[in-house]
Amino acid sequence: MKRIDALKIIDTFFAANPLVITCGATAREMASFSRRDLHLPLLDSMGLTSAIGLGVALGTNDRVGVIDGDGSLLMGFSILPTLAAYPATNLTIVVLDNGQHASADQVPSQAATIELSGAAEGLGLNTIRCNDAPTLDAALAHSKSENRFAMIFVKIEPGNSPDIPLLLADPAVLAQRFASAIGSSSQR
User: Fold this and answer.
1) Residue 98, exposed/middle/buried by CB under 10 A (0-12, 13-18, 19+)?
2) Do 129 and 187 contact (CB within 8 A), yes or no?
3) Which residue among 7, 59, 105, 143 is least enclosed by CB atoms within 10 Å?
4) Between helices 133-146 and 3-13, what is the axis angle to 10°?
5) CATH of the domain at 103
6) pLDDT 10s digit of each residue in the chain, 188 long?
7) How far apart are CA 84 and CA 157, in angstroms?
8) 95 φ/ψ angles, rounded to the nearest 5 degrees
9) Cβ contact 158:98 at 8 Å
10) 81-to-84, 89, 151, 178 alpha-carbon distances in Å
11) What is the 3-state secondary structure (H, E, C) of the chain?
């Protein structure tokens, strides 16, 4: 499965919910077809996506989604024991694993040789593995119906979608818009 196809499934699932999005090509690809006030693309915060998503989930009753990448998760690997210690039942983290730092000249990440989902599973985290669109869709539906923390690992093809423009938004403006949108959604 291509990353952009996985992103479209995730975007549909979290259409009315906060969604924290990792940096680089993932944020650019998402912005190429969907920009919502409830999206928080972390343009320059590699390694912090899941941690920020946990903070958002602990601060709201809304279902919160996170789109992380294998490279970003590896950079902020210490979030895994924190998620085990403070599991937010309203949080779903989707890790798109292509085994590379796609935005950094496609340099292989450690995920090319180790199974990241095994580390999460070893810590007792609710872990789901996916390889295609139907299993991703089913995993997202399952995580919502169980109303518990889930970490979904999705194997995706290496590389980036061609001809995706840069995302040159001001991170402070994106954060303010996201914070306002969360405030509005929690008042409904």
Assistant:
1) buried
2) no
3) 105
4) 30
5) 3.40.50.970
6) 999 999 999 999 999 999 999 988 899 999 999 999 999 999 878 889 999 999 999 999 999 999 999 888 988 989 999 999 998 999 999 999 987 566 655 566 656 677 888 899 999 999 999 999 999 999 999 998 888 899 999 999 887 767 877 777 888 999 999 999 998 765 54
7) 28
8) -105, 115
9) yes
10) 5, 16, 13, 27
11) CCHHHHHHHHHHHCCCCCEEECCCHHHHHHHHHCCCCCEEECCCCCCCHHHHHHHHHHCCCCCEEEEEEHHHHHHCCCHHHHHHHCCCCCEEEEEEECCEECCCCCEECHHHCCCHHHHHHHCCCCEEEECCHHHHHHHHHHHHHHCCCEEEEEECCCCCCCCCCCCCCCHHHHHHHHHHHHHHHHCC
* Domain total in the chain: 1
Q: Which domain holds residue 117?
A: 3-186
